[in-house]
Amino acid sequence: MCIRDSNKRIPIGAGLGGGSSNAASTIVALNSLWKLNLGITELINIGKEIGADIPFFIYGKNSLAKGIGEKLKDTSSIKDKIMLIKPNIHNSTKKMFAQLANISK
To answer: What global pTM score does this model have?
Structure first.
């Protein structure tokens, strides 16, 4: 199953940020539609409460993320070719981080 629109085809559960980019787009759109005039920092703070990689998509630039994804630093684009291999496995981000927390104890 894929998230589909005219611009992207990101497999659900692939760890590629499909749901997070949708959430970020919604936050940015509502800020505009409702004329809230919230700044980028405020939008990022809202996004980080929903998901760790949402601030990255709100920021909207090539960047390196630290913290829980809210500390962003501009970086240049990757110029090399990249091969993406997506096995037929669904990954739940929530479950993966829960398992990581259990291992870290």
So the answer is: 0.69
> Is residue 64 within 8 Å of residue 72, measured between CB atoms?
yes
How confident is the prediction along the chain (105 residues), in pLDDT tens digits per residue?
444 445 666 666 777 788 888 999 999 999 999 999 999 999 999 999 998 889 999 998 989 888 877 889 999 988 888 887 777 877 777 787 788 778 866
3-state DSSP call for residue 4?
Answer: strand
Please give the full DSSP string across 58-86, using - where no structure is assigned: HH-SSEEEETTTTEEEE-PPP-S------
CA distances from 81 to 77, 78, 86 (A): 11, 8, 16
The Cα 47–Cα 28 span in angstroms is 10
Which residues lie below 8 Å from residue 90, measured CB to CB, with a gap of 6+? 12, 13
